[in-house]
Structures are given as C-alpha cells and as structure tokens.
C-alpha cells in the first residue's frame, strides 16, 4: 500500500521533532527548519538559530552534567 501525502508529511514532522527535541542533533535538524523560520511567540526572536538556542538553553538548565557549551 502506498503512503499518502498526509502519512509522508506526518513522518517528516515526527523525524524533525525527534531530531531536535529528543536527540538534540542541531546539525541534522537544520535540514528540517529554514534559516528564516518564524516562531510566532513574543519570547523567541525570528530565525532557526534563535529557536534552536531556546532548546539548547533549556537542555542545559535541566542537564545533570555540564553542557558542551560550558566545558
């Protein structure tokens, strides 16, 4: 059975979320988010790097060991 466009889109989004939120693989996640990404939140500046930085900071604040940026 062929995948529908909806199923392929869902799979793509799940891969993107897994890559960024769970694996925290920012280099690979760049494939899924445009450099011009717009996060419609008053607390996050526009752009992919600002969005990624939000998760980098959040991860570091929750980490039980030092973050790579702080070593």
Automatic annotation (TrEMBL):
Xref: InterPro entries: NTF2-like_dom_sf (IPR032710)
Top-level taxon of the source organism: Bacteria
SUPFAM superfamilies: NTF2-like
Protein name: SnoaL-like domain-containing protein
Source organism of this protein record: Granulicella mallensis (strain ATCC BAA-1857 / DSM 23137 / MP5ACTX8)
Source taxonomy: Bacteria, Pseudomonadati, Acidobacteriota, Terriglobia, Terriglobales
């Amino acid at each position: 059975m062929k995948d529908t466009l909806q199923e392929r889109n869902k799979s793509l989004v799940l891969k993107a979320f897994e890559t960024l939120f769970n694996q925290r693989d920012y280099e690979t996640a760049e494939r899924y988010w445009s450099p011009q990404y717009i996060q419609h939140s008053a607390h996050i500046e526009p752009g992919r790097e600002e969005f990624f930085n939000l998760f980098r900071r959040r991860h570091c604040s929750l980490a039980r060991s030092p973050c790579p940026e702080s070593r």
